[in-house]
Amino acid sequence: MTKSSVLACVTYILSAVISITASAASLPEPTGKVILTISGQITHTNTDNNTAEFDREMLLSLGVFDVETVTPWTEGSDLYQGPMLSSVLQVVGAMGDTLKVSALNDYSAKMPVSDAFDYDVLLAMDMNGKPMSIRDKGPLFVLYPFSDMPELNNEIIHNRSVWQIKAMLVE
């Protein structure tokens, strides 16, 4: 092998490594207060510790969807807005089957990743046109479409409906 062939191989390998590293860290960095950190089996990160951090604007940029529903924890029907949980999982390149969702008070629940896609689960950020405060189950709330799918109104799904979310772990 000639010196130029070795140099070409080394250049090719280095460019491949740089390309892989760049694609693994393809998420922009948050510019505002971080309200969600996702870790675990994800392929797209934006931190040195292989997590994906999101501020409110980053989540809103994934698309805002409306879900009007009644929940067991509120009175009457409310209009919730935010990105679809499936969009959030897609943007981080979630590779696992289970999502552990953790709240500010350290409550956590596990849910199948497939729920996000099968039931159009919303990552609610706003309720009735206003950002959700911690007092009102914010800043983030895993919201199933209870009114559209009454079969979801059961204890298993209720336990997966975490509010005051701070982090998610893809397993």
From TrEMBL:
SUPFAM superfamilies registered for this protein in UniProt: Oxidoreductase molybdopterin-binding domain
Q: Which UniProt keywords apply?
A: Signal
For whether the record's keyword set contains Signal, the answer is yes
Q: Where is the Oxidoreductase molybdopterin-binding domain?
A: 75-140
Q: Which InterPro entries match?
A: OxRdtase_Mopterin-bd_dom, OxRdtase_Mopterin-bd_sf
Annotated signal sequence range: 1-24
Among Pfam families, the record links this protein to: Oxidored_molyb
Superkingdom of the source species: Bacteria
Name of protein: Oxidoreductase molybdopterin-binding domain-containing protein
Q: Which organism is it from?
A: Marinomonas aquiplantarum
